[in-house]
Specification:
The complex is a heterodimer of chains A (about 375) and B (about 100). Chain A has about 375 residues and is an alpha+beta fold. Chain A contains twelve helices and twelve strands. In chain B, the strands form two sheets. Chain B has a five-stranded mixed beta sheet. Chain B has a two-stranded antiparallel sheet with strand order 3-6. The radius of gyration of chain B is 13 Å and the shape is globular. The chains are: A alpha+beta (about 375), B alpha+beta (about 100).
């Protein structure tokens, strides 16, 4: 009896740590919300307020992972001024200061400059970002930015090497077994032949699931990309060496791999992680930093979303808040697993505690 | 006497910057635990390198990508180094 209780307890605990079959790159696209960058706009004088608001409107209205704050420094108390770097340099020309998301722990501002139409447009969008998003929404597993160093021969060599390595990886990698398309799920949340399944293994969109790694080269001298290139500075590397940066999900980027480290081990290692089972569904426990992109991901994905309803047994004594259909389709952030998994974990936890208590009492 | 095997470390962004190279090779006794090897490597490079690999409780950070010969190591703490291999590590961006 005791050993049976202990075995049951172990099974319950082990089942909680199971990986889901959806590859990391796809899990991130369908389930991880992007972290918000912060744009702080500083101006001096109430007479500038309306013109600043007009200039800042594209930032405020963009469907981007960006929070915008307008501050009239003339209204600040001395104590508040101490909290803003170089506040006294703000004159009649409004200043735009862009910061990485809070969770990045990067304190220094990403970019600072005058607030004007050019800076505003370069903050929220740029040609290469549009290309990245298009590729991801067409099913690319991961897009690779090759940030060039400016030496044509080294840049060309790095691109050739990266392409060859990615081709090799593509030929050898496979999608994990057990991924379930939503049209393979019944209204009862089982497979067509009645087998139970784990909803974390079910894809939420119709976007093709494939192993595909396009490369986008980026010159450091491209004016339209100047702020985006600054954004990439924290991804490692040196200006005199090409840097390959993998971007997946909703624009989440991993550390860059310098040209000197482009090898079968490094590229296969990165791709194997990105295309492998999502062993940890908690976004913050995975590496990477979200890029600033002007994309309403939920809207883009909604058109291709499957909504899988699962009939739940009635629960007495529990208040169950049923999410709306739009909430289900919008794949809200982090480790928000579908309700059945939450239910399983909750019941598993209760079972584990009960069995542990039974075991301890029986030992007396 | 234990035989030694060469282990090559390949570094991405931040670690490459700290080490000043994208690759280094070191011999270790066959059978060394991967975590133990990484701890020794981190001790050798010190400070920021250690912070990127280990948390304040001296545990290997979860948000690392560690691969051995191109295969992602899902459970690095369970692995030992029994043959010459190439280890590749990607760390969280700026510790975030």
């Amino acid at each position: 009896m005791r050993s049976a209780a202990v075995i049951a307890l172990l099974i319950a605990l082990i089942s909680m740590g199971e990986a889901c079959k959806v590859p990391v790159f796809r899990y991130a696209l369908e389930r991880w919300e992007s972290d918000a960058y912060r744009a702080v706009i500083l101006y001096r004088g109430a007479d500038l307020k309306s013109s600043v608001e007009v200039l800042a409107a594209p930032l405020v209205n963009a469907p981007a992972n960006l929070e915008v704050e307008l501050i009239n420094v003339a209204d600040l108390t001395e104590e508040q001024k101490w909290q803003i770097d170089d506040v006294d340099v703000v004159g009649k020309i409004p200043q735009l200061r862009l910061h990485y998301p809070h969770g990045s722990n990067i304190e220094a501002s990403l970019w600072e400059g005058p607030l004007d139409t050019t800076s505003v447009s370069r903050v929220i969008d740029s040609p290469i970002r549009t290309q990245l998003v298009d590729a991801i929404l067409k099913g690319s597993s991961t897009t690779w930015i090759l940030l060039q160093c400016g030496d044509a021969s080294r840049d060309a060599a790095a691109e050739t090497r990266l392409r060859a390595l990615l081709d090799t990886v593509t030929a050898n990698l496979t999608i994990p077994e057990g991924v379930v398309r939503a049209d393979e799920v019944t209204a009862e949340g089982t497979t067509k032949d009645g087998q139970p399944l784990e909803m974390d293994d079910v894809l939420r969109t119709e976007i093709p699931l494939k192993i595909h790694f396009p490369i986008f080269t980026l010159s450091r001298e491209t004016p339209a990309e100047s702020i985006f290139i600054k954004m990439l500075e924290h991804f490692g590397g040196k200006p005199d060496e090409p840097l390959a940066i993998p971007v997946f999900g909703r624009g989440r980027a991993l550390e860059g791999i310098p040209a000197s480290a482009l090898s079968k081990a490094s590229i296969s290692g990165a791709c194997d992680y990105l295309c492998g089972e999502c062993s940890c569904q908690v976004k913050d426990e995975n590496p990477g930093l979200d890029l600033l992109l002007a994309v309403d991901w939920n809207a883009k994905l909604e058109g291709t979303s499957f909504i899988v309803e699962r009939a739940l047994p009635a629960l007495s004594g529990f208040g169950v808040a049923e999410p709306s259909a739009s909430q289900k389709a919008s794949s809200s952030a982090e480790s928000h697993s579908p309700l059945p998994k939450v239910l399983v974990l909750t019941l598993g936890g209760i079972l584990a505690v009960t069995l542990l208590g039974t075991y301890l009492i029986a030992r007396r | 006497m234990e035989s030694e095997i060469p282990i090559t470390m390949t570094y991405a962004g931040q670690l490459a910057g700290i080490v000043g190279a994208s690759e280094e090779t070191k011999p270790v006794p066959q059978g060394t635990a991967l975590t133990s090897f990484l701890r020794d490597t981190a001790n050798r490079h010190g400070g920021r390198f250690q912070e990127l690999l280990f948390d304040e409780n001296k545990q290997l950070r979860r948000a690392l990508v560690i691969s051995i010969n191109g295969e992602h190591a899902l459970d690095p703490e369970a692995l030992s180094l029994t043959r010459p291999c190439e280890i590749f590590i990607m760390t969280p961006i700026a510790g975030g």
